Amino acid sequence: MAFVDFLSSHHNRTSRDYLARVTQVDKAACAEVAIQYGYDYWDGDRAFGYGGYVYDGRWYGVAERMARHYGLAEDARILDVGCGKGFLLYEFTRVLPRCTVAGLDISRYAIDNAKQEVRPRLVAGTAAELPWPDDSFDFVVSINTLHNLYNYDLWSAILEIERVGRGPAKHITVESYRDEREKVNLLYWQLTCRAFHTPAEWAWLFGQAGYSGDWGFIFFE
Known about the structure:
The chain is an alpha/beta fold. Helix content is 37%, strand content 14%. The chain contains 10 helices and 6 strands; from the N terminus they run H-H-H-H-H-E-H-E-H-E-E-H-E-H-H-E. Helix 7 (108-112) links the parallel strand 2 and strand 3 (122-124).
C-alpha cells in the first residue's frame, strides 16, 4: 500500500469560497437535497453539488496516468466504484481500446445520464455490496466516494474492493485534512461526507481492513 496522487492538480483547478458556502445558503437544507444524489446534486444549482456535471475530457489525463502507473494491459478489466456518470471509465476505453469496464454508483440519476458509450456497463447499487464475483477485475478505482459512507458501510466497501480486485492494482481517493484549517474548509465545503479522517487515520483503516492497494487524498487548502 502506498500514497499515490493522481488528482490534486485536477482538484486544485477549481477556486472555492468556503465561507460563502455556509453564509449565503442554508447549508443543512442543501445537504438534505444533495444526499438524494438526484438531478439537483449533479446538474442543479452549485449549492446542491456539482452545478452541472458534464463531460469535458478532463478525466482523460487521470485515466492515462493510472493506466501507465499500474501497467494495465490493453484488455484489462476495470471497475469504478462510485462511477457517477462514467466519465473516467469512458476515458479508460480511449486509453485502452480493448479494455472492459464496469461501474457502480448509488445514484440512479447518474447512471441514467451517464456517458452513452459506457452506460450499459454501469449499475446502481452500494459500494458496501458489489455485485461481482471474487477476483473479477485487474484494476479497481474509487474516487471521492468512500468518505460518503457511514463507518459500517465504509468498512464493508473496503473489503469489497479488495475482494473483487485480482491483485494490488487498486486505488482509492478520499477527502481528508491535515490541519485545522483544512478540516474547517472541508466541513464548510462538503455536502455528503460521513467519514472525516486525517491521512494517518485513513491509512490505519485501510491497513486494518487488509486493503492491498494504493490511496490518494483530496485536501481543501
